[in-house]
Design brief:
about 425 residues; alpha+beta; Heat Shock Protein 90; 2 domains; five-stranded mixed sheet; 13 helices; 5 strands; about 10% strand
Length: about 425
C-alpha cells in the first residue's frame, strides 16, 4: 500500500514538472514582454523594437515547435537529444538578443536554468547553464553594451554569483535524481525479495502439509504396531490368566477354592475389558471431535485422576491457539501413553500436565512424583518394542518435534514434548 502511494505521489510531481517545462517558457516570455513595454519610455531604443517583435514571434514559434516535439517524444521520457540541444541554443540566442534590446527579457533568458538537464547531454549541460548565466548577469548589470568599467566589474561579480548558484542547484538536483533512482531500485529489490519470500513461504507450507500427510500415514502403521503390543501385553495376558484360573476351577477340590479362582478370573476379565476400551480410546481420539486440545487434555487428566486415585492437575500457559488436527492428536496420544505408563509403573501420589503456547512452538510437560527409573536399565523390549517411551519420541519427531525424558529412581519422571505450532486453517 505504501509503495502504491509513493508511486502516485511521484507521478503527480512528474506531471507538475512536465507542466512547468511546457508552459514555463511561455509565462516567462510574457512577463518579459509586459515589463519591457512598461519600461519602454525609460529605455531610449525605439528602433530596435521592430526587431524585438520579430524575435518574440520567433520565440513563440520555437516554443510551439518544441512543444510538439516533446509530445511526440513523451513515451521515451526526458532524454537529452540533438533536437533538444538545437532548441536550447536557438532559444538562448533569441533571449540574448532580446536582453540586449531590453534587460527585462532576462526573465525569458532564465528559462535556460529550468530544462538544461532535460535537453542538453553530458558535460555540455554546464556550458549551456554558463551561457544562460552570462545573459542574466549582463541584464542585472544594466544591460548590454556596458558603458563603464564599473558595469564590467559588476557583471563579473554577478556572473560568478549566478554561475555558482545554478551550479549548486544543479548539483542538488543531480543528487536528488540519484536518490530517486536508488529509491526506485530499492523498492524494486524489495518487491523481488518479497516475491521470493512469499514463494519460499508457500513452498514451506506445502512441505509442511506433505510432512503432516506423511506423519498421518506413518501414524497408521505405528498404531497397528502399538495395538498389537497392547493386545499382547494386556488383553492376551489377561485372557491367558483367565484361562489359567478357569483350569484351576475345573480341578478345584472344593467350592471355596473354585469360588476364589472364579473371582480372580472375573477380576482379570474386568481388567482386560478396561484395557481393551482404553486401547480403542487411544486408537481414535474422540476427545478432539468436540473440544480443542486444552479441553481434551483437561478431561483426560481429570478422568485419569479419578480412575487411579492420583492427584492430577492440568495447566495451560500462553495464548491458546487452534492447532492442526495432526499436532493436537499427537500431543493427546503422548499424554495418554504417559498417563498409562504412570498408572502401570510410577505409583505416584501427584501428577501434573502443562501445555504451553510459546509463539511458534508448543511444549507439553508431564511430571509425576513416582518411583522413577533409570532409562539406561530398561529392558530392550521396553525401549525398542511396542509404543512406550521411544514410541512417544517417534510421534513427536514425525511432526518435526522432540521429546525428552528425565527420570531418576526415587525422584519421579518428567516427559517433555516440544513441537512446532501449526495452526488449523480450516
Amino acid at each position: 500500500m505504501q509503495t502504491g502511494e509513493m508511486t502516485t505521489a511521484d507521478r503527480q510531481i512528474e506531471r507538475r514538472w512536465e507542466q512547468l517545462h511546457t508552459w514555463g517558457p511561455y509565462g516567462l516570455l510574457g512577463i518579459s514582454v509586459v515589463l519591457a513595454f512598461a519600461s519602454a519610455g525609460l529605455v531610449d531604443r525605439p528602433p530596435e523594437w521592430y526587431s524585438a517583435w520579430t524575435l518574440i514571434g520567433a520565440a513563440v514559434a520555437l516554443q510551439l515547435w518544441w512543444h510538439g516535439t516533446r509530445s511526440r517524444r513523451a513515451g521515451r521520457g526526458r532524454i537529452p537529444s540533438r533536437a533538444g540541444t538545437a532548441y536550447y541554443i536557438v532559444r538562448w540566442a533569441i533571449a540574448f538578443v532580446l536582453t540586449w534590446i531590453n534587460p527585462f527579457f532576462a526573465f525569458y533568458a532564465a528559462t535556460g536554468y529550468m530544462d538544461a538537464d532535460e535537453v542538453i547531454p553530458g558535460m555540455w549541460r554546464r556550458l549551456g547553464l554558463l551561457a544562460s548565466a552570462v545573459t542574466v548577469a549582463s541584464a542585472q548589470a544594466g544591460g548590454l553594451p556596458f558603458a563603464s568599467g564599473v558595469q564590467w566589474l559588476l557583471f563579473a561579480a554577478l556572473l560568478v554569483a549566478n554561475s555558482g548558484l545554478q551550479m549548486v542547484v544543479a548539483h542538488i538536483t543531480e543528487q536528488e535524481a540519484q536518490r530517486s533512482r536508488e529509491r526506485t531500485e530499492t523498492i524494486a529489490e524489495l518487491e523481488r525479495t518479497n516475491t521470493a519470500l512469499q514463494q519460499a513461504l508457500d513452498e514451506n507450507a506445502a512441505l509442511h502439509a506433505q510432512l503432516l500427510v506423511q506423519a498421518r500415514e506413518a501414524g497408521v502403521a505405528d498404531e497397528r504396531r502399538r495395538l498389537a503390543a497392547e493386545i499382547h501385553d494386556t488383553i492376551a495376558q489377561g485372557l491367558t490368566g483367565i484361562i489359567a484360573q478357569l483350569q484351576v476351577v475345573a480341578n478345584a477340590p472344593d467350592l471355596t477354592v473354585a469360588r476364589t479362582h472364579l473371582e480372580r478370573a472375573s477380576a482379570l476379565a474386568r481388567h482386560s475389558l478396561g484395557e481393551a476400551r482404553r486401547s480403542v480410546h487411544n486408537l481414535a481420539p474422540v476427545a478432539l471431535e468436540d473440544d480443542g486440545l486444552p479441553e481434551a487434555l483437561k478431561k483426560t487428566v481429570v478422568e485419569w485422576g479419578e480412575r487411579t486415585g492420583v492427584r492430577a492437575e492440568f495447566t495451560v500457559t500462553g495464548i491458546t491457539e487452534q492447532l492442526h488436527e495432526e499436532v493436537a492428536a499427537t500431543l493427546l496420544r503422548i499424554v495418554q501413553e504417559a498417563l498409562s505408563n504412570a498408572s502401570r509403573h510410577a505409583h505416584a501420589a501427584r501428577l501434573g500436565v502443562t501445555l504451553s503456547f510459546l509463539g511458534d512452538e508448543v511444549i507439553l510437560d508431564i511430571r509425576d512424583d513416582g518411583r522413577g527409573f533409570d532409562p539406561d536399565t530398561l529392558p530392550e523390549r521396553t525401549r525398542t518394542g511396542g509404543f512406550g517411551l521411544d514410541g512417544m519420541r517417534a510421534r513427536a519427531e514425525r511432526i518435526a518435534g522432540t521429546l525428552t525424558i528425565e527420570a531418576e529412581p526415587g525422584h519421579g519422571t518428567a516427559v517433555s514434548a516440544r513441537v512446532p505450532l501449526v495452526r488449523d486453517d480450516r
